[in-house]
Specification:
The protein has one domain (2-237): 3-Layer(aba) Sandwich (Rossmann fold). α1 packs across α2 (42-55). The model has no long low-confidence stretch (mean pLDDT 98). 43% of the residues are buried. 32% of the residues lie in helices and 17% in strands. β9, α7 (206-214) and β10 form a beta-alpha-beta unit. The strands form two sheets. It has a seven-stranded parallel sheet with strand order 1-10-9-6-2-3-5, covered by helices on one side. It is α/β, with parallel strands linked by helices. The protein is globular and about 45 Å long. Bound molecules: 2-amino-2-deoxy-6-O-phosphono-alpha-D-glucopyranose.
Length: 244
């Protein structure tokens, strides 16, 4: 779906999420959201916060699982995805803090394997992801599933691609300060979500969007695996759709 601009597009995405939360609430059920960071989802979070403040949208039945976190990374660090999510969404809504799950960048390395297995298990125990929000990196990563990520990959630690670290360098005041690794949900974790919306804005995403939507399905561009998902939508602004 191609929109004139990212404002209009983000409103539609936020409305879909709000509808889902309300529909689940009416049935007395929890709503399990997979959430993303980066600049792409910011306006969706702004709109959800607005709906909470002005329209009484409640998040008391919502459980969230974030896609990824840098490793190592302290939660208080302003570059952490933990900080990002609280700043842009969690501090402004009525979600139960116990229902917030973000990969923990402080887990000791020898406990990481078990931590990642538990993260997967907790998604399953919550009933699986009802909705997964995604951005896309210029390497074709979703979450931090960099080129080479297998379709069957689960939550794990991954080495970040040079392009990804270079794109993050302005946030970290230079590429040398960007962590070399991250914890990410796997491709299979994402694909098991019942509904997926990937958002991309701006011309610097146009070429990877073309490869993702029209290119061959391959782990070289992990986002291409979404082509086979039965309920996935790419929400684009006109610039991101320029090469289609
Ligand atoms: C990071 C995140 C991804 C995100 C990507 C794109 O690498 N781990 O989840 O999709 O950035 O970021 P942006 O939305 O700022 O272009």
């Amino acid at each position: 779906e191609i929109f004139k601009n990212s404002f209009d597009a983000s409103k539609i995405v936020a409305q879909e999420i709000a509808q889902l939360i309300k529909a689940k609430k009416e049935k007395g059920k929890t709503c399990v959201l997979g959430l993303a960071t980066g600049s792409s989802p910011i306006k969706v979070y702004e709109e959800l916060v607005r709906m909470h403040r002005e329209e009484g949208l409640s998040f008391t039945n919502v459980i969230t699982f974030n896609l990824d976190e840098y490793y190592p990374m302290r939660k208080e660090n302003k570059q952490s995805y933990h900080y990002f999510m609280h700043e842009h969404l969690f501090n402004h809504i009525d979600i139960n803090p116990e229902n917030i799950n973000i990969p923990d960048g402080t887990i000791p390395i020898d406990e990481l394997n078990q931590y990642c297995i538990d993260y997967e298990m907790n998604i399953k125990k919550a009933g699986g992801l009802d909705f997964q929000l995604l951005g896309i990196g210029r390497t074709g990563h979703v979450g931090f599933n960099e080129p080479g990520s297998h379709i069957n990959s689960g939550t794990r630690i991954i080495t970040l691609d040079h392009i990804t670290r270079s794109d993050a360098s302005s946030d970290f005041n230079g590429i040398d300060n960007v962590p070399k690794r991250a914890i990410t949900m796997g491709v299979s974790t994402i694909l098991r979500s019942k509904r997926i919306v990937l958002m991309a804005w701006g011309q610097n995403k146009a070429s990877i969007i073309k490869r993702t939507i029209q290119g061959e399905i391959s782990s070289e561009v992990p986002a291409t695996f979404l082509q086979n998902h039965t309920n996935a939508t790419f929400v684009l602004d006109q610039s991101a759709a320029l090469e289609l």
